[in-house]
Every structure is written in C-alpha cells, then in structure tokens.
Amino acid sequence: MRLYLSSAAAGLLLAAGIGAAAAQDVIIEPQQQTVVREYVHKKPLASIDLLGVQLAIGSTLPDTVELHAIDVPDVRYRYVVVNNQTVLVDPQTRRIVQVVE
User: What's the pTM?
Assistant: First the structure.
C-alpha cells in the first residue's frame, strides 16, 4: 500500500511539473517583450468588446476574434485589442499568453 501511495504522489508531482514546464513555454524573452510592446503601440488596432471574456493569461478567445500578426522575427504570437487591452495570443490554441501594458 505504501509503495502505491508513493507512486501516485510521484505521478502527481510529475504531472504538475509538466504543467509548469508547459506554462514556461509561453514566456517571452525580455528583449522580445520590448520589441513587441513597441510594435503594438506603433500599430494600434481598434478595440473590440467581448462580454463575458476574462482577459487573463490562459483565457481563450472565441474563433470570431480576428488575430493580427506581429511582424517581428521569432515571435509566433498574434495580437488583438479586447476591451481596450492589448493581448498576445497563441494562434494555435487562441489562449492569451500576455497582457501588454
């Protein structure tokens, strides 16, 4: 029984570690953050209103929201302005990866 519990606990810790590693994959390098921030400020978009959508990292945007490319090397994310906040979005999952200040 003790071996079973230890294995289960190890499995849970491993799963938590995998989740944390996946979350780290969306971290944008500081140099890229500066370039992206400058880009989206130079290329402002009209804000769209979305009721019932929480603008937080990990939130998913509906398919009806048009995502715009960022013309910066090595940046795979897209951006959009929702409820007057600029957000970076992973185009494959449509999840918000960063709220741009």
Answer: 0.71
